[in-house]
């Protein structure tokens, strides 16, 4: 359906207009081969499997992800294979390896992308920056994308609750003339809340900016700065963490997600209301040049080059672990670990209680 959002009219696909039974019918003769079982692979593959699609997994044997796939119920030789074997068997190849993994496996995958197959991505990185990744697909296959706007863990968790994460979708190459219906079928099959149209380029630009911005990079920077100021002014670790992280994540953000920031401003104390209204534009004005610089770095390809160069080093994992240890061992997140453990645990009803309430 067409929906006007602000001044723009967008294509939005909901579960009501594209139901699951329709998706199953469209893909009933397809073997969906999910390559990679890291970030998005588990959630997308398990949701598709539970929704009645024919799914197999491709992963490096004896890796940690291979062992995780076994733990999740995939069976070696039945629906769990090596990457190369799964590439041969699948008619729709879901390329969910990491960006670095996609680059290294591409020469093998390309040989198995025979005419009429479909190549699926959840990230536009590999094709948008093909001059750097060297991923140049054949012309006689369909290529499309569905990108959940959240982690694979959240995709799976919300699926089990009967909910869903919104996803973007895009068509890169429509060899069969049926790419759109395949794309929407997988989008509904993985449990998307709704689907909105984009392009491979716009998906990767917005994704890279978001990860480095409000989703992870900027928010960690703001957390660290506010916590630091409160601590250096004599506030306790508990008070500093609660005012910086705990109240935001446990109280305010769920309400913002449900009702919006405008509602939040209208339903807080007048003191908080006045302060937030006076200060939000100051933060916008300070960070706007940084976001413009970030977008320019992404769109120019400089960020992609830096990522590929960094990830290609043999000692990348070792350096990554050291960087993550700095975060983990910072007082901010050491305190956070303790405070998370102090949260009240969810109480489960005993069988006796259940009988009384039924």
Compact summary:
With 358 residues, the protein is an alpha/beta fold.
Strand order of the largest sheet: 1-2-10-9-8-7-6-3-4-5
Helical proportion? 55-70%
Global Rg: 23 Å
What fraction of the residues are assigned to beta strands by DSSP?
5-15%
The 3D shape can be described as: globular
At the fold tier of CATH, the topology name of the largest domain is Rossmann fold
Q: Give the averaged pLDDT, no decimals.
A: 93
CATH architecture of the largest domain: 3-Layer(aba) Sandwich
Number of strands: 10
What about the largest sheet? Answer: 10 strands, mixed
Q: Which structural category do the helix and sheet elements fall into?
A: alpha/beta
CATH class descriptor name of the largest domain: Alpha Beta
H/E element sequence: EEHEHEHEHEHEHHEHEHEHHHHHHHHH
Distance between the termini: 42 Å
Q: Which homologous superfamily in CATH is the superfamily of the largest domain?
A: NAD(P)-binding Rossmann-like Domain
How many domains in all?
2
User: Low-confidence parts lasting 5 or more residues at pLDDT below 50?
Assistant: 351-358
Give a description of the structure.
The chain is an alpha/beta fold. It folds into two domains: 2-198, 3-Layer(aba) Sandwich (Rossmann fold), CATH 3.40.50; 211-342, N-(1-d-carboxylethyl)-l-norvaline Dehydrogenase, domain 2. It has helices at 20-26, 41-50, 64-71, 83-89, 99-111, 125-128, 130-133, 152-160, 179-189, 200-212, 217-232, 237-259, 261-266, 270-299, 302-311, 316-328, 331-342, 351-357; strands at 2-5, 8-14, 32-35, 55-58, 80-81, 92-95, 118-121, 142-148, 167-173, 194-197. It has a ten-stranded mixed beta sheet, sandwiched between helices. The protein is globular and about 65 Å long.
């Amino acid at each position: 359906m067409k929906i006007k959002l602000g001044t723009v009219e967008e294509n939005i696909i909901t579960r009501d207009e594209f139901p699951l039974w329709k998706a199953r019918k469209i893909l009933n003769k397809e073997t969906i081969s999910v390559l990679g079982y890291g970030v998005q692979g588990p959630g997308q593959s398990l949701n598709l499997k539970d929704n009645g699609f024919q799914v197999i997994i491709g992963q490096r044997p004896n890796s940690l992800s291979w062992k995780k796939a076994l733990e999740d119920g995939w069976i070696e030789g039945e629906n769990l294979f090596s990457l190369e074997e799964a590439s041969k068997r699948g008619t729709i190849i879901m390329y969910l390896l990491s960006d670095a993994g996609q680059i290294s496996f591409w020469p093998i995958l390309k040989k198995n992308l025979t005419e009429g197959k479909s190549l699926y991505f959840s990230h536009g990185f590999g094709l948008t920056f093909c001059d750097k990744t060297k991923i140049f697909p054949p012309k006689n296959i369909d290529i499309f994308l569905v990108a959940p706007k959240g982690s694979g863990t959240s995709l799976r968790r919300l699926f089990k609750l009967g909910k869903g994460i919104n996803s973007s979708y895009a068509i890169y190459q429509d060899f069969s003339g049926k790419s759109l219906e395949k794309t929407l079928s997988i989008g509904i099959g993985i449990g998307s809340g709704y689907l909105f149209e984009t392009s491979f380029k716009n998906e990767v630009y917005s994704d890279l900016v978001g990860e480095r911005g409000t989703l992870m990079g900027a928010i960690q920077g703001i957390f660290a700065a506010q916590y630091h100021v409160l601590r250096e002014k004599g506030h306790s670790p508990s008070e500093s963490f609660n005012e910086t992280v705990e109240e935001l994540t446990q109280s305010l953000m769920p309400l913002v997600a449900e009702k919006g920031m405008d509602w939040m401003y209208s339903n807080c104390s007048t003191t908080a209301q006045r302060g937030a209204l006076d200060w939000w534009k100051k933060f916008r004005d300070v960070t706007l040049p940084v976001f413009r610089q970030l977008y320019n770095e992404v769109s120019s390809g400089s960020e992609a080059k830096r990522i590929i160069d960094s990830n290609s080093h043999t000692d990348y994992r070792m350096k990554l672990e050291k960087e993550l240890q700095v975060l983990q061992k910072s007082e901010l997140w050491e305190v956070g670990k303790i405070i998370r453990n102090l949260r009240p645990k969810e109480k489960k009803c005993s069988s006796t209680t259940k009988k009384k309430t039924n």
